[in-house]
Automatic annotation (TrEMBL):
Source species: Nonomuraea rubra
Protein name (Swiss-Prot/TrEMBL): Putative ATPase
SUPFAM superfamilies found in the cross-reference section: P-loop containing nucleoside triphosphate hydrolases (SSF52540), TPR-like (SSF48452)
Stored InterPro entries: P-loop_NTPase, TPR-like_helical_dom_sf
């Protein structure tokens, strides 16, 4: 059984035209029709990614589950390749099973084109991943880009050459000249190819050997210099290559000479300060913002006040790409440009210092997010940490390969609010377990990592593994007098008791946690979990008034601090309490309120719980067909988590009762049809429908 609704694809919109490449596109499409593994190879800057994306967009309608882009350039660790694929699909990272097993099961009956972009630096891991997924999923095809083949059985390799250039007489294909003119016109409106500049433009393209990235860099300069003068300067650059940039030219990656020339020439056209900032910003992975640049890259040579103008200069020279987002302005670099900057950073002797500053910045960011999470800024922190995911990974990898002062443990633990609420539990577990294995000396920092690791496992429905970490945390906390860790460990034991159905133990632990709670100390996760645990037991034992009282106290505390994530869980538990009293309309109102928040924060467990409650309320109200659809949509989410209802007996029982009532009302065949329709509906679409209080509103068609 697959896990999730039909995937519509995630290909980014095209922002520039694709010049030429008709023959290559036709060959890619033919190869993908005949073979399931196709790799586009070629030198850096030849346009492999651009070509793969256009080909995928053209082929996407032929795949029932669309085409999915997985960008790998920002990864430093091969073990994260499966997680990046899961994130792109998107497949919630909330199961303790190996991610490759989850991916294989998810893809086994899907018809999907997977685009693995920039594989060369993780070639072995990409090859192993592709090999395993192709064996597990007969409907899967993979289109990869890499500077060298993956070596997968039956792989078809298509070498991408530079664009055709005119011959010295002006004859032949003009693709390179067309690209140069189009890109120049973007920054110099009205620019066209004329009889007066045609020969110089053709000469420039020949000198750059038709390499698209080199041509685009040259286009940025045509605003300032005529093509003839540009050619002369470029000729000088070729002559100087061996003397001025020997270290860069001899280093990996083995760039095409024209690209080395164009990038090195752009480097020379930068001011000394811009060159230094180019090198320093190469330390970032993925995208980054002005604040990060100012803190990581500035010093007496590059004062913070100068950074905005220097960044504007790099954008103007097409070194850095400006990318406005919903959360503010961010920058990114093309991989080849970043690699060049990284080589210069090493040549300057600054690489390790910049990596440390990068780590320190993101450690401070994580500390701030940790301190602020149980407050009014959860949505902005959710957006910020998602935008910084690549940089957080890079910082964690540096901490693990350069251990110092418990930084790996501290960073991995401080990001608990990213691992759990934002949907990356399995990745968090991966980093926490690595950090715990590396840093074994008992400490307060290690204690925190222990209970956070326990949390990631509990919320994945694995109380046995979670208890092992919680027990170690409790023991060391007693030795060190670490009260905060002792309370957190107790909350984890309470969670394990709840999952196992030991209501008496769960209630005793919850009461004990609440007995030592002091409201003046603000919100703490153990206390909030204790409130939920207490209300769950009261509802299960029929003491609904006590459950409601506990939840009202929790809501009042959350509202006082502007907290929404745990407040939404309180609404969900209140919905379950209302459901137990037969107050179905009230249950649906509370569940919808929670679902709206959980959807905004990408909290899959909260989403699945809310859909379950809505299904149960609909079924109890005689709305069997909507109940079956919601059960199907909820199952889509639970399948990505790994253990439906986290295995909590009371939740499992409620879901089973819901299904029995719905089947009895409309029959097995109609139930299965409605359930399948919900299961195959896109999650966002299905949630919007579930938020509609009108049960008779038109249901979206399943997405195939």
């Amino acid at each position: 059984m697959n896990m999730g609704g039909r995937h519509a694809g995630n290909l980014p919109p095209e922002t520039t035209s694709l010049v030429g490449r008709r023959g290559e596109l036709a060959r890619i499409r033919r190869l993908c029709r005949e073979f399931r593994m196709v790799t586009l190879t070629g030198v850096g800057g030849v346009g492999k990614t651009r070509l793969a994306l256009r080909a995928a967009a053209l082929m996407q309608p032929g795949y029932g589950d669309g085409a999915c882009l997985v960008q790998l350039s920002a990864l430093d660790e091969g073990a994260l390749v499966p997680y990046s694929i899961a994130e792109a699909l998107p497949l919630a990272d909330r199961t303790t099973r190996p991610m490759m097993d989850v991916l294989a099961e998810y893809l086994e009956d899907r018809h999907l084109l997977l685009v693995l972009d920039t594989c060369e630096h993780l070639i072995d891991e990409c090859a192993a991943t592709a090999r395993e997924l192709l064996l597990a999923a007969p409907g899967l095809s993979i289109l990869a880009t890499s500077r060298r083949p993956l070596g997968v059985p039956d792989e078809q390799v298509l070498i991408i050459d530079p664009l055709p250039v005119p011959d010295s007489g002006g004859g032949g294909r003009q693709d390179a000249v067309i690209l140069l003119a189009e890109r120049t016109a973007r920054s110099l409106p009205g620019f066209t190819v004329t009889d007066g500049n045609r020969a110089d433009l053709a000469r420039l393209c020949r000198r750059l050997e038709g390499l698209p990235l080199a041509i685009e860099l040259a286009a940025a300069r045509l605003r300032e210099l005529p093509a003839a003068e540009l050619c002369e300067r470029l000729d000088d650059r070729f002559e100087l290559l061996g003397d001025t940039d020997a270290e860069v030219n001899d280093a990996d990656p083995p760039w095409h000479q024209a690209l080395r020339t164009a990038i090195g020439w752009s480097h020379q056209l930068c001011t000394p300060e811009e060159r230094l900032l180019w090198a320093r910003t190469s330390v970032f992975a993925g995208s980054f913002d002005d604040t990060a640049v100012a803190e990581v890259c500035s010093d007496e040579l590059l004062p913070p006040a100068a950074i905005p103008d220097l960044m504007a200069g790099l954008v103007d020279k097409s070194i850095v790409i400006w990318a406005p987002t919903g959360g503010g302005e961010r920058y990114r670099m093309l991989d080849t440009i970043r690699e060049y900057g990284a080589i210069w950073l090493r040549a300057l002797g600054e690489q390790d210092g910049l990596r440390r500053r990068h780590r320190d910045f993101y450690l401070k960011l994580a500390r701030r997010g940790d301190a602020a999470w149980l407050g009014p800024e959860q949505v902005s922190w959710n957006d910020r940490t998602n935008a910084e995911h690549d940089n957080l990974r890079t910082a964690l990898d540096y901490c693990l390969t350069n251990p110092r002062d418990h930084t790996a443990l501290e960073l991995a633990a401080a990001l608990w609010f990213f691992w759990y609420p934002c949907g990356f539990l399995r990745e968090g577990q991966h980093y926490l377990e690595r950090a715990l294995a590396l840093d074994t000396e008992p400490s307060v920092v290690r204690n925190r990592a222990l209970w956070v690791c326990s949390l990631t496992l509990m919320v994945q429905g694995d109380p046995n593994a979670g208890m092992a970490w919680a027990a170690e945390c409790a023991g060391v906390a007693d030795q060190l007098g670490d009260t905060a860790a002792a309370l957190a460990a107790q909350a984890m034991v309470m969670a394990a008791a709840t999952i196992r159905g030991d209501l008496a133990l769960a209630l005793a632990l919850a009461d004990s946690l609440l007995a030592v709670h002091r409201p003046e100390r603000g919100l703490t996760l153990p206390t909030l979990l204790a409130r939920l645990g207490q209300s769950h037991v009261h509802t299960a034992q029929g003491r609904v008034e006590d459950a409601v009282k506990a939840l009202e106290e929790m809501c009042a505390e959350c509202d006082k601090h502007g907290e929404r994530w745990m407040r939404a869980y309180a609404d969900l538990f209140r919905a379950q309490a209302e459901l137990s009293l037969g107050r179905n309309d009230a249950a649906q109102a509370y569940a919808r309120s929670a679902l709206e928040i959980k959807h905004r924060l990408h909290d899959s467990i909260g989403i699945a719980m809310a859909l379950d409650v809505l299904a149960c309320a609909a079924s109890a109200s005689g709305q069997a067909e909507p109940a079956a659809r919601r059960l199907g949509l909820a199952q889509q989410v639970w399948d990505t988590i790994g253990r439906a209802q986290l295995g909590i007996p009371e939740w499992v029982g409620a879901r089973e009762m819901c299904e029995r009532l719905a089947r009895a009302a409309i029959g097995d065949s109609a139930f299965q049809t409605a359930f399948a329709a919900g299961y195959d509906t896109g999650l966002d679409t299905g949630i919007l429908h579930a938020l509609d209080p009108d049960p008779n509103s038109a249901h979206p068609a399943a997405e195939h």
